[in-house]
Amino acid sequence: MNVAVALLLIVLYCSGAMTAVVPACEIPGDVVEETHILLRDLGAPFPARCLPYNANVTFPRAALANETQCRRALRNLRRTLQGSEKVFEDNEAPQGDGEVAWNPRKLEDFQNLQNRVVQEAECLSSAGARSYPEFSSYFGNVSALVQQQESTACGWSMLRRDVLWVLKNSLQKHHSCFRW
Ligand SMILES: *[C@@H]1O[C@H](CO)[C@@H](O)[C@H](O)[C@H]1NC(C)=O
Ligand SMILES: *[C@@H]1O[C@H](CO)[C@@H](O)[C@H](O)[C@H]1NC(C)=O
Ligand SMILES: *[C@@H]1O[C@H](CO)[C@@H](O)[C@H](O)[C@H]1NC(C)=O
């Protein structure tokens, strides 16, 4: 390697231009896209009457919106889907009445793909990763809403809205982090 090339690499590296390189651990973008579409088309939009619950349950958006590193962004995407998966596992999924009249077929397909993304991203769950206590706080609060009869519909609606945002944000802001 000649000196000019070596210098160019050093300059690129130091300017951060190389941090956008796709990580060794690859997540298929088309699967994430399909997961997003299924969740989006699952049912009616977010019910306005659930808005007051925003005061009690706030998704840690900054952990994704302001993340510049692929690895960290994808890790937070995985964290979100894993937390969501747990809420589905621990609670009876919406049965298709009232505000959460979700298409059962789409719901099942969504859950399968959600699990697939979590599995594909397993390689990102390394020890020593920065922990976000906001995530456990968020999922604890959402679960609490889902578990109380009067707020069940709002709890599920919030979970869907927030996971939808995470998928969309990841695809838009971290598009190059996925394998296409
Ligand atoms: C939000 O939390 C506060 C205090 O924990 C509680 O009094 C209030 O009823 C909750 N609001 C909703 C909409 O659940
Ligand atoms: C969860 O609820 C607690 C108690 O109402 C509140 O202090 C905390 O900010 C909430 N956390 C999130 C992430 O919404
Ligand atoms: C991202 O960071 C900027 C500047 O610190 C802040 O104004 C913005 O609200 C953050 N975005 C989110 C979603 O928290």
Q: How is the topology of this model organized?
A:
Elements: H1 3-15, H2 29-40, H3 62-65, H4 70-90, H5 104-120, H6 133-147, H7 152-173
Helix pairs in contact: 2-5, 2-7, 4-5, 4-6, 4-7, 6-7
Bound molecules: 2-acetamido-2-deoxy-beta-D-glucopyranose (3 copies).
- The portion of residues forming beta strands comes to under 5%
Which molecules other than protein and nucleic acid are bound? Answer: 2-acetamido-2-deoxy-beta-D-glucopyranose
Helix content: 55-70%
**Main sheet summary:** none
Order of helices and strands: HHHHHHH
Ranges with pLDDT <50 over ≥5 residues?
19-23
Mean pLDDT score, rounded?
86
Topology, number of strands = 0
User: Could you give the distance between the termini?
Assistant: 31 Å
Classify the secondary structure makeup into a structural class.
mainly alpha
Shape: globular
**Annotation field: number of helices:** 7
